[in-house]
Amino acid sequence: MFEGDWACSDCGAKITKLPFEPSPDRPVRCLECH
């Protein structure tokens, strides 16, 4: 798991853990919006 401080690109929800390292040029979405 990768820990960080991201915001969902759709709803703005706070994301603190992801199973992958997010790419800076792609949007990050929470489980609800994915």
Describe the structure.
- The chain is globular, with a radius of gyration of 9 Å.
- With 34 residues, the protein is mainly beta.
- The mean pLDDT is 96.
- Helices cover 0% and strands 32% of the residues.
- Strands 1-2 form a two-stranded antiparallel sheet.
- The chain has one domain.
- 0% of the residues are buried.
- It is built from no helices and two strands.
* Spatial strand order of the main sheet: 1-2
Q: What structural class do the secondary elements suggest?
A: mainly beta
Total DSSP helices? 0
Question: What summary fits the major beta sheet?
Answer: 2 strands, antiparallel
Distance between the termini: 18 Å
What's this, in brief?
The protein is mostly beta strands. The chain is 0% helix and 32% strand.
Fold blueprint:
Layout: E1 2-7, E2 14-18
Antiparallel strand pairs: 1-2
Q: What are the main properties of this structure?
A:
34 residues, mainly beta, globular
